[in-house]
Amino acid sequence: MTSSPVVRVLAKLEPGGAQLSVLRVVRALEAHRIRSRVLVGWASPEGLALADRMGVPVEVYGEGGDQQWQADPRFARWLRPRVAGAEVVHAHMFGAWWAAAKAVGSGTALVASEHNALTWPSGKPPLALRHGLRRVDRFFAHGPGARRAILAAGMPLERLRPGISPVADLDSLPVAGLPSPRIVFAGRLHPEKGPDVLLDALALLPDAPLTLMLGDGPLRQPLERHVRRLGLEDRVRLQGWAARPALSIAGASVLVVPSRDESWSQTAVLGMGLGVPVIGTDVDGLPDTLADGRGLIVPSEDPEALATAIDDVLAGRRTTDLAGARAYALQFTPARVASVYAATYLEFAAPSAATAGADPWDDERDDEAPSAAVVPAA
């Protein structure tokens, strides 16, 4: 590649798995002498603090709120001068790659990523979905849900690749002084991650050991109230955001991933890499991640089934293939993931490769109002 950096566009920046993986890739690509300029549609203060801790400067558009599900031409106009002349733009989440598709020039390759299933707020995709995909040269879809949606929207199969995210600290040792045995949950405190389901399951297990819940999010206060209602104050600790969750997951008796929606769980893979038995739910890509005995799968939103699985693992009645799980996890070290993306960027950096056959974007409607995902599909 030339001296021009890869321009990376995020629809939103907050302390979440997708954003953390992007920041890790940015840092790991430095070993390949690939610099990244990071542009963000919207950022929370916590997200900005996370980027700062990881040493990744970002520029934020900041208008119009969360850009994840919006087709916002104003965001595209803000991006246009900032992506001008780039060889490669890599955009993450619908609102980012739609805007990038409208902003990039004909000599720039556009790579897109979806880190979760496309679960539109309205239940239907916006009209702009197909238009944005016409301009995408390579699409990384994380999980079967995103893959199906992107193919159904017209993305040619040859442009589609499985999404991959880096998982760090796979050789961590537990922090001294942690309780043992212990159960661990790590993730955003958000309904899609199912922390409330775990609490309901723990209420059915009066003899279960202490549970550490790592993470923060909009459910923090409701979960604190739920802990009190269930009488779990002595058995559950809400620890808040953990920059290095591996230090608490390592050495745990079981790691629980009770998600309602999960395309590919970094938390589950981290637990697998650390030799911890993992219990997940039968949603989207999680059964694939935990396949072949690498973990246990229970129905989602089923506290009774989850409680039974936790109890079985704690009692030794059910086990997982820890060696197979570790081998699977080692595919996702930051260095290996960065090498995959570096190869993609180098492939498209050649002048003959960049968007030669891409459909031109129609600029006639450039001044239209933002098209939110609530617009019904055609």
List descriptors.
single chain; alpha/beta; Rossmann fold; 2 domains; six-stranded parallel β-sheet; about 15% strand
Show the helix and strand layout.
Layout: E1 6-13, H1 17-28, E2 36-43, H2 45-53, E3 58-60, H3 73-83, E4 88-92, H4 94-103, E5 109-114, H5 129-133, E6 138-141, H6 144-152, E7 160-162, E8 183-186, H7 195-202, E9 211-214, H8 220-230, E10 236-240, H9 246-249, E11 254-257, H10 266-273, E12 278-281, H11 286-289, E13 296-298, H12 303-315, H13 322-329, H14 334-349
Outline the structure in words.
This protein has 378 residues and is α/β, with parallel strands linked by helices. The protein has 2 domains: 6-166 and 333-365, 3-Layer(aba) Sandwich (Rossmann fold), CATH 3.40.50; 183-331, Rossmann fold (3-Layer(aba) Sandwich), CATH 3.40.50. Helices cover 34% and strands 16% of the residues. The chain has helices at residues 17-28, 45-53, 73-83, 94-103, 129-133, 144-152, 195-202, 220-230, 246-249, 266-273, 286-289, 303-315, 322-329, 334-349; strands spanning 6-13, 36-43, 58-60, 88-92, 109-114, 138-141, 160-162, 183-186, 211-214, 236-240, 254-257, 278-281, 296-298. Strands 3-2-1-4-5-6-7 form a 7-stranded parallel β-sheet, sandwiched between helices. Helix 2 (45-53) links the parallel strand 2 and strand 3. Helix 1 (17-28) packs across helix 14, helix 3 crosses helix 4 (94-103) and helix 10 (266-273) crosses helix 13. The longest helix is centred in the C-terminal third of the chain and has 16 residues, at 334-349. The chain is globular and about 60 Å long. Residues 354-361 and 363-378 have low confidence and may be disordered.
